[in-house]
Amino acid sequence: MALRQTLSAAPALASRRRAFPGEDESYTKARKSLLAEEIDLRRKMTRIAEQRRQLPPGPLMKDYRFKDANGAELGLAELFGGHDTLVAYFWMYGPERERPCPMCTNWLGSVDGNANDLKQRVAFKIFGRSPVERQKAFALERGWQALDFLQLADDDYARDFRLLNGDGSENPALAVFKKRGNDVRLFWKSEMTSEMADPGQDPRDAPDIASLWNILDLTPSGRGTDWYPSLEY
Q: Among 82, 13, 75, which Cα is nearest to 42's?
């Protein structure tokens, strides 16, 4: 077993920061303090990723059914291709919606540019309750080129993963599955629900998978309290 390397204290690393010309002393002090916190955050994120990879085998999955662009019905195990890992995102574009969820749209737009890279390492699929041709028509409208869409053949997956609400509305979800032989098990699913959100905060996972919010978190005004992305501007 490799020995864990002793890490330098975050404040010591932050002290190596070089000030910008004309930088005020109060800014220098505050920025070094924040930099130390950012180093600690990076280390915690690394530890969490390691802890996630050490999860024991999750529940054995049903043979959930999906329809592809040709109308062929496929089981969950058939979605892996040559990989043993499947990353699947369920987006809010059910048949009852005239237009898809703007936030789902925002995320898919950002991940479309990474999809071909992702598919070198894992299978990557987008699940929706609308027919594939409807999902692909919207993808064409947005200029997406690398996303693979599937339609749920029934609502079993949506119900079991708590993606359908009593009023018929939907919840998005990112899930990761692991395949061994013919068995497919859940490895991880985003599970931070609205009941787990801190006061005054929108429910979200950590780390946040949305690049939109991560970039806005770097700005003076942050995410704001009453703004969301729109489908059109």
A: 13
